[in-house]
Every structure is written in C-alpha cells, then in structure tokens.
Design brief:
Blueprint (H helix, E strand, L loop, with lengths): L3 H14 L16 E5 L44 H8 L18 E3 L10 H6 L11 H14 L10 H7 L2 E5 L4 H6 L7 H21 L4 E5 L8 H6 L12 H24 L4 E5 L1 H10 L8 E5 L1 E2 L19 E2 L6 E3 L7 H12 L4 E2 L3 H9 L1
Parallel strand pairs: 1-2, 1-3, 3-4, 4-5, 6-9
Antiparallel strand pairs: 5-10, 7-8
Helix pairs in contact: 1-12, 2-11, 7-9, 10-11
Length: about 375
C-alpha cells in the first residue's frame, strides 16, 4: 500500500499542476478520513444564510453567489469553492456539511465555521456597545457546537477515554481557518484599541486550541489573518495616503501582520505544551501578499477591484450596495479577479492560496509533515 505521505505528495503534485486530475485514487488511501473545520466567512460552507449572515452581505443565499462552480448559491461567501473545499478535494473527501444543516451523517467531518464570527466572545462587544446581534457567534460558540456534536456521537471525554471518541478523532484533521478579522472591523470608530483586540482575540483562540488539544487531537492546521488592507472595503474607506508597498491600506495591513506575529509565537508555545500533536501554521498574510506583488503570474488582471459590486473602478465597492443588491453587477470573468464582493475572495484566489498552502510554500511546517508524523503515531 502507498504510504500516507507518499500519497499526499502525489495528490499535491496533481492538485497544484492541474485541475486536480488524480487517476489512481482507487489504489491508495487518504491520510485523513475526516475534517472538522472552524472559522468565519472565509471557511463557512453554509452555517449562515442571507437572513442570518453579516450585515451588508445579506444575499449569500442568492445568485451570483455560487455561480462559478456550483452554479447555484450554497451559502458560501464566494462565487465558488473556498480553501477548505480545495483541501477536501486534495484529500479525496466530500465537501464538508455545515453543522447547522447536517443530517447526522458526519463520517467525513463537519464544518463549524460561521460567517461574521469573532475570536472574542460576543459579550465583550455588547459591553462596549459594539453589538452585532445578527452574528453573535464566536470561536467559543463553535467549540460549544463541537462539544454538542461530540456528545451526539457518544464522545464525552478525551480521545483515549472511549471507543466513541476514538471513532470521532481517529484519522481526523482539525482545520482552524482565519478568524479575528471581524473583531478588528467591529471596533472601527470606537475607543477600543487594536492592541486590546489582539490580546483578547489571541487569548480566546489559544483557549480554543488548548481545549481541542486536551481532548487528544493530533493533527491541527491554523491559519493566520490575511492582509485586510488589500480588501476593496478597506481601500474604499481609508485615506489615499495610507498605502504600503503593495498598494494596500498600510495601517490595516500592519495591524494584521502584527497580530500574526504574536499568534505564531503562541502556536509555537502550544507545540511545546503538546509535543504529541502536529500543528501547522498557514501564513495567509504572506501568501496573499505574494499574489498581490505579481498578480499576472497567478492569472489575475484585477488585484483591487471587486468582481461583484457597485461603483466601478477603482474598487467597485459601496457599503450600502454590495453584491446581490439591485444596483450591483457581476464581472464576466471572476477568475481574473482576486476579490469577489469587496471582502471575500473569488474561487480563483482561494484556489491559488490553497495551492500555496498544500505545496508547503506558506505552511510552517509544510503541510505534508502532518501526514509524515501521522504515519508514525
């Protein structure tokens, strides 16, 4: 039998060099049998709908969302697939069902990510009069959902405590997508400092990861934050003299870069605390920035303008006329755009980022190290 690490190397080769043409799957086995995913709208595969999602992006349940790949809306905040979808494809797994809509069959995993979610508990924003009652979920909410899911599977302890827990966690990959961008967005115009948000957000994410690791999970992927200053939303709101070498909003990009630097140190601390676990950090910021520095190399003609939106150049984004509203229009070729609706990315950009992550270029340690280590556990 082909070893898991050899298998994954082969899959990544085909995934990164073509449209994922893998012809010998029947002769091999995937290194992971299931994925449990967490995060916000960059990872959410259907836990929100138009009526329950973030204010300003209330049309995710309608076209043109989902138009590129699925050809119908799937409640993903994009024209097609997300990073997590490309990961499931690379592992030859089905797309993850959203937790709030799954019908009990979770043999290949569940997605707990929810759009608008914050790293910090909702109570903090309520206390500071920064309520976003439409999306009150946080990463701790997702942990609560996960624990409920575990209980429904008969798992009420650690991985080693019962056969039911082993059945849930064996051959499982924990995927913690980007989360924390909303926390910074919600304090715009308030007296709450970004330093305070960084401290609380990373503390909350650390507690979340510790809770999972204490259960005995062995394979974890965590994503950093993207350079949010490159999003049309930020570009349209910031003064024109607030720009960096990428042409993006310098203050916003510095904010997320600093966040990631501290977060990576925390991840290293967790590796030291839980030496039996493999934890890979995906460098979202630098992967995204690499595309921005040479968009044509990755097939993009429009690095700053939203494909779906209102207003035309330079950003095609207006806060009160976002994608899906009657005033909005959609570009004819989303694959040439990095950004989909002013905040979320196109399938083409998610594909490019997925290739960079899975190939190991922006994964520390390389993603394949999880399969190598798993082989010897």
């Amino acid at each position: 039998m082909v070893s898991p690490s050899t298998y994954f190397s082969f899959v990544v080769f085909f995934f990164c060099s073509s449209n994922f043409a893998f012809t010998t799957a029947a002769q091999t086995t995937s290194p992971f049998k299931k994925i449990y995913a967490f995060g916000d709208s960059f990872t959410d595969t259907g836990n929100t709908r138009s009526v329950s999602g973030p204010a300003g992006f209330g049309h995710v349940s309608s076209l043109p969302y989902g138009s590129t790949f699925f050809h119908h809306p799937t409640n993903r905040y994009s024209d097609g697939r997300l990073v997590i979808d490309f990961v499931t494809e690379a592992l030859l797994l089905p797309y993850l069902p959203p937790y709030l809509g799954h019908k009990g069959n979770a043999s290949h995993g569940v997605n707990f990510a929810v759009a608008g979610s914050t790293a910090i508990n909702h109570a903090f924003f309520v206390k500071n009069n920064l309520t976003m009652d439409q999306t009150p979920q946080s990463i701790q909410t997702q942990l609560f959902w996960f624990n409920k899911f575990l209980a429904s599977q008969g798992c009420n302890g650690s991985v080693s405590s019962s056969p039911e827990c082993k059945a849930v966690f064996d051959d499982a990959l924990i995927w913690v997508g980007e989360i924390g961008v909303n926390d910074y967005a919600y304090i715009l115009g308030s007296s709450v400092s970004s330093d305070r948000i960084r401290e609380l957000a990373i503390s909350s994410k650390t507690r979340f990861l510790q809770a999972l690791l204490k259960k005995g999970v062995k394979n974890v992927v965590v994503q950093g934050l993207p350079p949010t200053g490159c999003l049309p939303l930020a570009m349209s709101l910031a003064p024109e003299d607030d720009r960096d070498e990428l042409g993006c909003v310098k203050s916003a990009n510095n904010q997320t870069y600093t966040h990631n630097t501290v977060y990576q140190n925390t991840v290293q601390d967790l590796r030291n605390q839980f030496p039996d676990a493999a934890i890979a950090y995906l460098d979202y910021w630098n992967a995204y920035a690499t595309v921005m520095k040479n968009p044509k190399k990755y097939g993009f003609k429009e690095p700053f303008m939203a494909c779906c939106g209102t207003g035309g150049p330079p950003y095609n984004f207006e806060v009160f006329s976002t994608c899906g509203t009657s005033d909005a229009s959609t570009c004819s070729n989303p694959s040439q755009y990095i950004n989909w609706d002013g905040v979320h990315l196109t399938e083409a950009m998610y594909r490019a980022l997925s290739q960079m992550f899975l190939s190991g270029t922006f994964s520390h340690p390389p993603f394949i190290s999880l399969t190598d280590r798993k082989q010897h556990v």
